[in-house]
Amino acid sequence: MPPESNLTQTIREKTEQREHENLSPYATFADQTRGRERKEEPCDIRTAFQRDRDRILHAKSFRRMKSKTQVFLEPEGDHYRTRLTHTLEVAQIARTIGRALQLNEDLVEAIALGHDLGHTPFGHAGERALARVCPDGFEHNEQSLRVVERLEKHGKGLNLTWEVRDGMKNHRSACMPATLEGKIVRLSDKIAYVSHDIDDAIRGGIICQQDIPKELSDILGATLTKRINTMIHAVVSCSEGQNEISMKPEIEQAMKELRKFLFERVYSNPVAKGQEKQAEHLVAYLYEYYQKEPGKLPEEFRVLIHEKGERPERVVCDYIAGMTDRFAVSKLKEIFIPMRWDVISVRDSIPGEGRS
After folding, report:
1. Against a cut of 0.90, is the pTM above it?
2. Staple 61 to which of 3, 117, 160, 298, CB 3.0 to 4.6 Å?
3. Tens-digit pLDDT profile for residues 230-240
4. 294: buried, middle or exposed (CB in 10 Å: 19+, 13-18, 0-12)?
5. Which residue(s) pair with 36 in the sheet?
6. Could you say which architecture CATH assigns to the domain 4-273?
């Protein structure tokens, strides 16, 4: 007689069965994943997508997002968004839409939590700098994929499923994910940043509520909550029962106009973005330094060059892209600003405290 464990379903298998019973026929089912690059034994409790979500949540790159710029560099105040809080807001919006449409909420959440792992320090200013100095260019969505495939776990990567990696790579406007769950995250990203960037800009005194064109407030709502609610409803009502994710045209057009307003009044505002040139220079300086001194890279990055055959230019880019804002500034000071002789003397007198 076979062992008792073979006669009963695992918790994972029960969950997979419920997916087929309860989710839309257009959903992506966990037991039909296209798989991982390296084959693994399945978990007895979690589905493949639940497992991916957990791996991303426990990744070092996920934790570092708490100290990476979303829009404003080093804002004075505790309530401005960071790259991490933006990610959590995207995940919340995406889960709400995914649940309402009876799609795979676990896949939605995994993609949402991982979509910005590749973002640089100093937000898009850092991204522009690396795109300019790196021979291969730089795009944060491609870097997010590289983080989970090559950089996490000392070069082993997280070995995520194809569906999660596809959604992460293709969350930008110029791309299109293969799954409906990925398309939800792509749209939720826009809903989130259009909404919370206005909220942060108002908090910072860059704009006031009355600056937002009245015709847009009349359509989308005059508060953060109403705007998000309007856009979520516009996606759900237009996509329910469909093999596509879309938004009511009039709401989508208003969202685009609101994004245009943000570019004109916030993203290019010299008060809000006046420090970005310095941030770009800082990132470029760091890149130039480590290009000339690859031996100064941490060991896990040197291994990528010497044992994995990665190009030094690519690995330097990886190291800098993974830095938080504070760490990038501290590295610049360490490299380019001489320390006082008395500080050096004290550090050198303590075992293990010499300069690296």
Report:
1. yes
2. 117
3. 999 999 999 99
4. middle
5. 161
6. Orthogonal Bundle (1.10)
